[in-house]
Design goal:
Elements lengths: L1 H27 L10 H8 L10 H7 L10 H25 L7 H6 L14 H11 L2 H7 L5 H21 L3 H16 L2 H17 L6 H15 L4 H8 L7 H17 L3 H8 L3 H8 L11 H26 L6 H12 L9 H23 L11 H35 L3 H12 L7 E4 L2 H10 L10 E4 L6 H10 L19 H14 L2 E3 L11 E6 L2 E6 L12 H13 L1 H12 L3 H23 L3 H14 L4 H14 L12 H4 L6 H8 L5 H13 L3 H14 L4 H13 L3 H13 L8 H17 L3 H14 L4 H13 L3 H14 L4 H13 L3 H14 L4 H13 L3 H14 L4 H13 L3 H14 L4 H13 L3 H14 L5 H19 L1
Helix pairs in contact: 1-4, 1-6, 2-21, 4-6, 4-8, 4-18, 6-18, 6-19, 8-9, 9-10, 9-11, 12-13, 15-18, 16-18, 18-19, 20-21, 25-26, 26-27, 26-28, 27-28, 31-32, 32-33, 33-34, 33-35, 34-35, 35-36, 35-37, 36-37, 37-38, 38-39, 39-40, 39-41, 40-41, 41-42, 41-43, 42-43, 43-44, 43-45, 44-45, 45-46, ...
Length: about 1000
């Protein structure tokens, strides 16, 4: 009777006591605002616009009521809800540990004789409490229990499924299994990890049901309930398809939802799951097996060895599980942090809460195992227990009690400081500092960092009677639905997209540059973090603390103006006053607080930007102090490291830059490209790096930013000839020929001290002539190139430049003469032969064009341009059937070559091969849905087949997409369309 009462307390009342105690602990240590992990959830709930979900439908429904609360109270309310979910999860954990069977080994079966083999010893309460404390006080679990990350709600569903399986083992009631199927189906829609755990769930069902698992009635019931849960997948597509803010159709939204889950699941490193499973899934497998008594071993010695090995395995797994709770180097948290450090991303992480939960479940079992085996005599014993054995049993039992007491004490000692440090104050301080430089209240703020954007948005109060600021994620501006939502929210302040932009299409970057330039001219516009890219061609950043005002460049200006003394003083004062906050962040980084590391990266990036500004102003010592503080805030900031090294060079007064410490590629190697390095760390002020950045920006057509880097190189290293040549080329590509000529003049003026070689002289002539040509002075441009070619007659580059100039001036006979002279020097010059074919086609001299193409194909049978030209010549000469063979050959090499597809479609159409022509046109339609010539061809095919409906449809699409300058052809199609419609009406 006493055992039954004890078991009833452990299984029924103790879980509720655990839930209440856990809730008190988590409420007392609750995050008072947000953490980085909870920021996406809280910012989504507090958003003024109800954004349709693209996934996690259950979370969307559960958190929907929180939107009705005052914005200021939403973070605390969500955190309290999360604490409740965590407490209930731990209550389920306590209940699940109490339901674990203790008949897995012969020793347990000898000692535990209760119904269903549930632990009934006096210390039966210890395993549930031990498991709950090991799980609930573990740092990752504690963090997610006190901040609304959404993970704890997912874990609550997982814990309930585990509880259902264990309950079924006790009373064999199938309702527990159907509940588990329903909840599992719902949980899958909300958490991709449940897909990965499905084989484990299925194996558990088969293990418990045995052969009855395959009964049709049971399978259909489980399948039905599971499918009912999975129908929640349909909620986001339905909301997106029928909501006012719909940006996608039902099927497109559903496909995106499923592929997102698949990508997240398959993209996760397998080795992390394997290692995490060693202290959770592997022990779970051990617990699930009811081991035989002897394993076929009949000798007493063999039995003793087997028993000893079982005890050793249980001990190892118990110790490993406790070590993981203390964040062992091989634990999920530490492995994930190492992975994030390699990718330089402190934000996106996976908490592995399900693995911690299962590991704690196993810890509870192991504690019960040792208390039972070493603290309880066998029910029937014919052998006398030796004093040594009794002493050993007491020692092991004492060790378990010590672990049960010491583990929670140690976890509190280790983790309480970190929990208190991540109480939201770090992020609140950052948000406050970030908003100090913003005007109140009417402004536009942009950022390419969603976390920074959300923090600033959460710290901006709503002022009655004043318009809200517009906060924009620049990563999403290229998507039409996002632009439309901004215009819908701010119709008077955010412009509507042009009517030509197709739904769901990406907005052209040229339009975005134009859009941002207009916004910056008519509004106070700020960037919330240092950044680079095409927005900063017409605009530059003026620092104001941790935000940067977007200012349009003055007319004809290349570089931004020098910072005023007032602006410098303002920023110096800001950083000095922020000193105590930065010192606290630095101290917390030393204690490995995750939020502090992330915030430290942001502070470091901003300080690095300010240090570079100071260095460009000649304030070397002030820059040195800024770099030193930025380095303390993020020791891994590569940009700060390079800047500090060069700053030391400048402080020594050296005329040449010092050699970098180590190879530059090794220092920046973990970044995909220069853009990602700058985005994470801020700008770099070093001649070598500036030159490389200039090359990168030039390759991306960011000519002003390239020019700024090169101008800085020349300011630091005036004798850098490569930089001057590249600067002249950048000015030329950027459409500033006067600056090109000015730079060319500077290069020529330095010839006396540094004579130019022939390669440099040729490049100088090319730059100078092109600049004159772009200014409209074709005569001077021609004279420069001809003079240079007389001095360097065998230089092909000069001939190419002269050819391009003649083609642009439409002086095709001169271009042909230039090519003939080049071919006299090099008859097999492929580029010259192809250029000759092009010019001859323009002059309608198809025989000469064909001869040039034949010469190329004889040398290079698979030359794509020659094959394309061969097909074009055949089409121009109306030899349509002959055009198909070279185009077929080209399309084998390049199946998506659109010009070749179009030409082959035309050739087949003119040859009356309508099926083949239609296939090519339909392929082009899939590749370029708005290409008007495709619909002209499809309309012609339908017209020849007397398919009036199809012809009308395609001609209408042609007229929808045809450009305004195609007046004649469009008029013909319109007339034909009228005739078709008139004929079909009779």
């Amino acid at each position: 009777m006493e055992n039954q009462e004890r078991s009833g307390f452990v299984q029924s009342r103790l879980p509720w006591l655990i839930t209440a105690a856990a809730l008190i602990v988590y409420v007392l240590t609750l995050n008072r605002w947000v953490s980085l992990s909870s920021l996406p959830v809280i910012s989504n709930v507090s958003s003024r616009e109800l954004v349709p979900p693209i996934g996690q439908p259950l979370r969307f429904l559960v958190l929907l009521p929180f939107r009705w609360l005052p914005v200021a109270g939403q973070p605390i309310a969500l955190n309290v809800f999360t604490a409740l979910c965590a407490a209930l999860t731990l209550g389920l954990l306590g209940r699940s540990v109490a339901l674990l069977p203790h008949d897995r080994t012969r020793e347990q079966r000898q000692r535990e004789r209760s119904k269903s083999s549930l632990l009934s010893i006096p210390a039966a309460w210890v395993p549930p409490v031990f498991a709950v404390m090991a799980c609930g006080l573990q740092l990752t679990f504690w963090e997610h229990a006190t901040a609304a990350t959404g993970e704890m709600f997912d874990l609550l569903l997982f814990a309930y499924v585990v509880r259902c399986l264990l309950e079924y083992r006790i009373d064999q009631c199938e309702c527990w299994l159907t509940r588990s199927a329903l909840v599992y189906g719902i949980a899958i829609t909300n958490n991709y990890a449940m897909v990965g755990f499905f084989p484990v769930y299925l194996a558990a069902l088969i293990w418990m049901k045995g052969l009855s698992f395959v009964e049709f009635r049971f399978v259909t019931k489980m399948f039905g309930w599971g499918t009912a849960g999975l129908t929640l997948y349909l909620l986001p597509p339905l909301i997106n398809a029928f909501g006012d803010q719909a940006g996608a159709g039902f099927w497109q939204s559903l496909r995106y939802e499923l592929t997102s889950q698949k990508g997240a699941l398959l993209g996760f490193p397998r080795y992390l799951i394997l290692i995490a499973g060693l202290t959770s899934l592997l022990p779970l497998l051990l617990i699930g097996i009811r081991w035989p008594s002897t394993f076929g071993e009949t000798s007493p010695t063999g039995g003793m060895i087997t028993t000893f090995l079982f005890r050793v395995v249980h001990t190892i797994l118990l110790v490993a599980g406790i070590w993981v709770a203390f964040d062992a180097p091989f634990g999920p948290r530490m492995l994930m942090e190492q992975l994030l450090q390699q990718t330089d991303d402190p934000l996106s992480t996976v908490p592995f809460l399900t693995f911690y939960y299962l590991g704690a479940l196993c810890l509870g079992y192991f504690a019960g195992y040792f208390l039972l085996v070493f603290g309880q005599e066998t029910a029937k014993s014919w052998t006398k227990v030796s004093a040594a054995t009794r002493l050993c049993n007491r020692a092991v039992t004492g060790a378990i009690w010590l672990a049960a007491i010491g583990t929670p004490v140690g976890l509190v000692y280790k983790n309480l400081g970190a929990i208190r440090a991540t109480d939201g104050s770090l992020l609140r301080d950052f948000a406050r500092l970030a908003t100090l430089g913003l005007p109140k209240p009417d402004f536009i703020a942009l950022s390419d960092d969603p976390y920074v954007l959300a923090l600033v948005q959460g710290n901006l109060p709503h002022v009655e009677g004043k318009p809200d600021p517009i906060l924009t994620d620049t990563r999403l501006l290229r998507y039409t639905p996002y632009q439309e939502s901004l215009h819908r929210r701010f119709p008077e302040r955010w412009p509507a997209l042009p009517a030509t932009v197709a739904p769901l299409a990406q907005v052209d970057p040229v339009f975005l540059i134009y859009e941002m330039s207009g916004m910056a001219k008519s509004n106070e516009t700020y960037y919330l973090n240092p950044s680079f890219g095409y927005y900063f061609e017409p605009l530059y950043l003026e620092p104001h603390g941790m935000v940067y005002r977007l200012v349009p460049y003055a007319t004809n200006a290349i570089a931004p103006p020098r910072l005023s003394e007032q602006t410098v003083a303002e920023n110096q004062r800001f950083w000095n006053e922020a000193g105590p906050i930065l010192d606290r962040v630095t101290a917390l980084i030393g204690r490995e607080i995750g939020d502090a590391r992330a915030v430290g990266r942001w502070y470091s990036r901003a300080l690095n930007w300010w240090g570079v500004d100071l260095q460009k102003l000649g304030r070397i010592d002030d820059a040195s102090r800024a770099f030193a503080r930025a380095r303390r805030l993020n020791p891994q900031n590569v940009a700060v490291e390079i800047n500090s090294d060069f700053n030391q060079t400048l402080r020594t007064g050296a005329t040449a830059p010092a050699k970098a410490k180590g190879n530059l590629e090794e220092r920046v190697g973990r970044y995909r490209d220069w853009n990602s390095l700058l985005a994470a760390n801020g700008p770099i002020d070093d001649p070598e790096v500036c030159f490389r950045l200039a090359q990168t920006f030039a390759s991306q057509s960011l000519f002003r930013q390239s020019a700024l880097q090169l101008m800085r190189v020349l300011q630091l290293d005036p004798d850098n000839l490569d930089a001057r040549f590249l600067l002249a080329g950048v000015f030329l590509a950027g459409g500033i020929p006067d600056k090109t000529l000015e730079t060319v003049g500077e290069i020529r003026s330095r010839q006396t001290s540094r004579p130019l070689n022939s390669t440099n002289l040729v490049e100088l002539a090319r730059l100078e002539s092109t600049a004159h040509f772009n200014k409209g002075d074709a005569a001077t441009a021609e004279k420069i190139l001809l003079d240079a070619r007389r001095q360097h007659p065998r230089n092909s580059g000069l001939s190419d430049a002269l050819f391009q100039m003649y083609v642009q001036a439409n002086r095709l006979t001169n271009a042909l003469s230039t090519l003939e002279e080049s071919l006299k020097l090099d008859p097999g010059n492929t580029a010259a032969l192809l250029n000759k074919a092009y010019v001859c086609m323009q002059l309608k001299d198809y025989d000469e064009a064909s001869n040039a193409v034949s010469a190329v194909l004889k040398k290079e049978p698979d030359n794509p341009q020659a094959l394309l030209d061969r097909g074009a010549i055949c089409i121009q000469t109306k030899a349509y059937k002959d055009a198909v063979a070279p185009l077929n050959q080209l399309l084998k090499l390049q199946p998506d070559n659109r010009i070749a597809l179009m030409n082959r479609a035309i050739a087949n159409l003119q040859s009356d091969q309508l099926d083949a022509a239609q296939r090519d046109y339909e392929t082009l339609q899939r590749l370029v849905p708005t290409l008007y010539r495709v619909y002209y061809g499809l309309g012609e095919i339908a017209s020849r087949r007397k398919d009036v409906a199809a012809a009308v449809k395609n001609y209408e699409l042609y007229l929808k997409y045809v450009p305004p300058d195609a007046h004649k052809e469009a008029a013909e199609v319109s007339e034909r369309l009228k005739q078709l419609k008139a004929g079909s009406s009779h």
